[in-house]
Write a structure and sequence with these properties.
This protein is α+β, with helices and mostly antiparallel strands. Helix content is 48%, strand content 20%. It is built from four helices and four strands. The protein has helices at residues 3-63, 65-78, 85-99, 155-166, and strands spanning 102-108, 142-154, 173-181, 200-212. Strands 1-2-4-3 form a four-stranded antiparallel β-sheet. The chain starts with a helix and ends with a strand.
């Protein structure tokens, strides 16, 4: 092998080494950086898209902020952060006057920590309480208060009154209702199913109001 051929082979080897070194030292790291930058760009674009959707929702909500505030106030009246029994009694008397019936008595039991209602085999509640699926409703912030109302008046008007109470500002869930001929009428005392809408009855309504602490 002559000297010129040796030099040619050496030159070729040097070129190969230079190209290989350039790949590992210069080109390959730059390609990795470019690939990482492309992935980062895709992530940023996805995050921007999510933020734009969120921003659009916030803008829509802000346009309805007054309605949302009113909704919050309504919900707070329905399930207030304190018992506020006097306000509930005032509402009862107002509804009774509107229907032409008389609230004869009103009693309130002690508030107790909330416990979910057991479910029967048919999927329905097996007791008169309430059940929940919201994990934010717990025994430490939600309290049912038992209430009993005795009201007297014409049977149909009493039923209208009970319906009004359930649809009133304060959430009131009826768990039991019973009636008998009024002791102030000529009807037979003890009748639990008045036959005429105009018959006067004494009605006992049992149910719950609720307190949700902030």
């Amino acid at each position: 092998m002559n000297r010129s051929r040796i030099w040619v082979m050496a030159a070729v080897l040097a070129v190969v080494v230079a190209i290989g070194g350039g790949w590992f030292i210069g080109i390959s790291p730059q390609l990795a950086v470019a690939k990482s930058a492309k992935a980062d760009r895709s992530n940023v674009m996805a995050a921007n898209q999510r933020n734009q959707i969120l921003l659009a929702k916030l803008k829509r909500d802000y346009l309805n902020i007054d309605a949302l505030k009113n909704q919050i106030l309504t919900l707070q009246e329905s399930v207030p952060p304190k018992a506020d029994i006097p306000s509930f009694v005032t509402e009862l008397n107002s509804l009774a006057n509107a229907r032409g019936v008389i609230v004869k008595s009103f009693s309130v039991g002690d508030a107790k920590p909330y416990t979910p209602t057991p479910q029967g085999s048919n999927g329905k509640s097996s007791s008169s309480g309430t059940s929940q699926t919201n994990p934010k409703i717990t025994a430490s912030n939600f309290f049912p208060i038992p209430v009993q109302i005795s009201v007297s008046g014409e049977y149909a008007k009493v039923l209208d009154f009970v319906n009004d109470v359930q649809l009133g500002r304060r959430l009131f869930l009826v768990s039991a209702l019973s009636s008998m001929g009024s002791t102030n009428s000529n009807s037979v005392k003890g009748s639990s199913t008045p036959s005429a809408g105009g018959q006067r009855v004494d009605c006992s309504v049992t149910g719950f109001i609720y307190v949700l602490l902030n």
